[in-house]
């Protein structure tokens, strides 16, 4: 029989318990055996092979070809063809594996043995259904013990397969070792890159702190200059108001003199009427100027409201930035706790991120101080606008100063926005990188453990059999 090309396994090799019975059921013993079921392509031939698990030298073979099948069909009243017989044998073997049937190997009686000496079938393989009243035998097949050369042939085939598997496993372990070495080198390279990134982050935070301190100093200087200019403007406005008040007093005295002089001379009356017309024209111009100042004051109030809305938006941005920083700190702590058990490489990253969060909190405190200073400046502006209603030039200069203030606030807001966008991106990239490394190496370690544990038992078994 060609065991390399035409042999087809009907079912995979199965380990099951087989009952060995002696003559007239005198001795019964259950032993663990390995069953192999094979057939030959393009031939009506099936072979069942039983080997004891503890002793591979004890092998029992059952071979059924077309001639022996016809004998079995007549003796045991079978109602199937050879293909149906093969299917039923496979089904009964599966039932034996499941425990529904029991496989028994009987030694023939002395009389039966003398009659079948020519056939060399000294055993019977039975498929028995255990029942309460009487056991039912579904099928009985002739069986013989295998000679030494067939036993050696099958043991050699098993040893060849075991050697091939061991060779493949050694190749896989070598390849996995090479991959592990390359991955370690990659981890070291990533650690060096991480150190460089950490140094760059520290340098950026230092530069940002210096820039913020410079900008704050400039803003404080500008605020001091604004306060000085506004104090000078207040002094000027007070002096002009005092001059106008004196002029008004003089005009009232002139009016009294004119009224007394009206009775004395008509000529003075005419001159006084001309002067009155002149004064009326002046009053109309003053009213127009007053209306213009009112409109400008309303526009200044609108601009103040816009500034208030912008300050509220800035406060909201600062609160959102603080929430993002808190979330970033939580995520950073979780990442550091997870990676500290595997590799203690990213410990310094947490310190760098904490320094960045401290710098951001300092920037938030500076922004809050600036908002408080803006509120105080708004109060002073409201008080000064009530005093300087008629000063158009002062209001225009104040508008220019407010615009400069808005530009400075916009610049501060842009820097804060950049910080808020950069820090979550760095945290996210670090989180993805750490998660990917952890998942990759855990999977590879598990596969290596499985490959190294499973082949070890098979290699030891193959070495023992080679020694025998």
Provide structural commentary.
The protein is an alpha+beta fold and 468 residues long. It is 73% helix and 14% strand. The chain contains seven helices and seven strands, in the order E-E-E-E-H-H-E-H-E-E-H-H-H-H. It has helices spanning 66-76, 82-98, 110-115, 148-262, 266-342, 347-387, 392-467; strands at residues 7-21, 28-40, 45-52, 59-65, 102-107, 123-129, 136-145. The chain has a seven-stranded mixed barrel. The longest helix has 115 residues, at 148-262. Mean pLDDT is 78; it is low at 110-119.
Helix content: over 70%
| Biggest sheet features | 7 strands, mixed, barrel
Provide the residue-averaged pLDDT. 78
The sequence of SSEs as H and E is EEEEHHEHEEHHHH
Q: Which oligomeric state applies? A: single chain
Radius of gyration: 53 Å
Query: Structural class, please?
Result: alpha+beta
Total count of strands: 7
The rounded distance between the terminal residues' Cα atoms is 27 Å
Task: Quickly count the helices.
Answer: 7
Spatial order of strands in the largest sheet: 1-2-3-4-7-6-5
The best one-word shape is rod-shaped
- Which stretches are low in confidence, meaning pLDDT under 50 for 5 or more residues running? 110-119
| Proportion in β-strands | 5-15%
């Amino acid at each position: 029989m060609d065991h390399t090309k035409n042999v087809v396994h009907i079912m995979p090799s199965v380990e099951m318990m087989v009952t060995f019975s002696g003559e007239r059921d005198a001795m019964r013993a259950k032993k663990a055996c390995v069953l192999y079921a094979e057939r030959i392509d393009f031939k009506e031939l099936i072979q069942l092979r039983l080997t004891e698990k503890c002793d591979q030298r004890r092998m029992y073979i059952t071979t059924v070809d077309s001639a022996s099948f016809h004998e079995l069909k007549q003796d045991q009243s079978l109602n199937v063809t050879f293909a149906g017989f093969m299917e039923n044998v496979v089904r009964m073997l599966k039932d034996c594996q499941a425990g529904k049937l029991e496989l028994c190997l009987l030694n023939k009686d002395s009389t039966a043995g003398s009659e079948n000496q020519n056939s060399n079938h000294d055993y019977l393989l039975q498929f028995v259904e255990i029942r309460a009243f009487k056991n039912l035998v579904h099928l009985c097949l002739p069986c013989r013990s295998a000679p030494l050369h067939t036993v050696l042939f099958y043991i050699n085939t098993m040893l060849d397969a075991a050697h091939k598997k061991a060779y493949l496993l050694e190749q896989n372990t070598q390849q996995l070792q090479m991959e592990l070495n390359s991955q370690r080198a990659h981890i070291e390279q990533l650690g060096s890159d991480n150190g460089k990134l950490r140094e760059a982050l520290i340098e950026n935070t230092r530069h940002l702190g210096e820039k913020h301190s410079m900008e704050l100093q400039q803003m404080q200087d500008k605020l001091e200059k604004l306060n000085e200019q506004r104090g000078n403007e207040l002094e000027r406005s007070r002096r002009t108001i005092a001059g106008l008040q004196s002029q008004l007093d003089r005009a009232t005295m002139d009016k009294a003199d004119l009224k007394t002089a009206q009775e004395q001379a008509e000529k003075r009356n005419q001159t006084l009427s001309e002067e009155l017309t002149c004064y009326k024209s002046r009053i109309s111009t003053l009213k127009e100027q007053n209306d213009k100042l009112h409109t400008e004051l309303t526009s200044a109030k609108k601009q103040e409201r816009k500034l208030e809305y912008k300050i509220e938006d800035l406060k909201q941005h600062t609160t959102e930035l603080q929430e993002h920083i808190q979330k970033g700190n939580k995520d950073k702590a979780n990442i550091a706790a997870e990676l500290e058990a595997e590799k203690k490489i990213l410990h310094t990253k947490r310190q760098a991120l904490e320094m960045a969060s401290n710098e951001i909190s300092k920037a938030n405190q500076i922004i809050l101080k600036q908002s408080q200073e803006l509120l105080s400046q708004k109060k002073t502006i409201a008080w000064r606008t009530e005093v300087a209603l008629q000063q158009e030039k002062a209001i225009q200069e104040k508008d220019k100063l407010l615009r400069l203030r808005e530009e400075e606030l916009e610049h501060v807001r842009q820097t804060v926005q950049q910080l808020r966008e950069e820090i979550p991106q760095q945290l996210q990239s670090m989180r993805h990188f750490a998660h990917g490394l952890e998942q990759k190496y855990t999977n590879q370690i598990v596969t290596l453990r499985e490959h190294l544990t499973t082949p070890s038992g098979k290699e030891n078994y193959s070495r023992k059999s080679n020694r025998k």
